[in-house]
Design a protein that fits this description.
Elements (H helix, E strand, L loop, with lengths): L2 H5 L3 E5 L5 H5 L14 H13 L3 E9 L2 E10 L7 H4 L10 E8 L8 H13 L9 E6 L4 H9 L3 E2 L9 E6 L1
């Protein structure tokens, strides 16, 4: 199958469960991309801990047919979930809004259009407000990650000023 026909394939999001856990943990990015995204195993552990503490995290596998090609995770942070001293310097768009917490496409599946399709699907899903109403979806990325910047701005995410103590660039999309 050539690259042109793979762009026509339909991407879908699949909730993480015990059936697909190992396949999603096995997805990897290129070595030079590792500094830009946490491992899927760490992300799944973070989701588990967040849910165990009463928070909202929803991890998804990104699939083409029956094949996993990527991973993403969203979150929703309620203002009452945070410690009072953390709230002071935290931008308003963080609370009561959705976070695109993780987003990766496996190194063997990049440059096929799957990331764009998956990003549209997750934005559409977020607009169903699965954890509560929100005005924004936000995310952050390493300043030197030009690929991420181009993808997110092409969907309307607008970069915000770097908050005190942050080392990643935040970007916000009005829902």
């Amino acid at each position: 199958m050539d690259n042109n026909s793979s762009k026509e394939e339909t991407v879908r999001l699949v909730k993480v469960d015990t059936d697909n856990l190992d396949d999603l943990i096995g997805l990897k990015v290129f070595d030079e991309q590792k500094e830009f995204v946490a491992s899927n195993m760490y992300s799944l552990a973070e989701a588990y801990a967040t849910i165990a503490e009463g928070g909202f995290a929803q991890p998804f596998g990104i699939y083409v047919g029956e094949n996993p090609v990527g991973f993403l995770m969203i979150g929703y942070i309620r203002k009452d979930d945070e410690e009072e001293d953390e709230e002071e310097d935290t931008p308003d768009y963080v609370f009561e809004n959705y976070l695109l917490w993780r987003f990766m496409i496996d190194k063997k599946q990049q440059r096929k259009g799957y990331g764009k399709q998956a990003l549209q699907l997750v934005i559409d899903y977020i607009r169903t407000f699965p954890a509560g109403k929100a005005e924004y979806c936000w995310l952050s990325y390493e300043p030197e990650n030009e690929t991420a910047r181009k993808l997110y701005t092409s969907f309307g995410f607008e970069e915000k000023e770097l908050p005190k103590g942050w080392d990643e660039v935040p970007a916000v999309l009005k829902l």
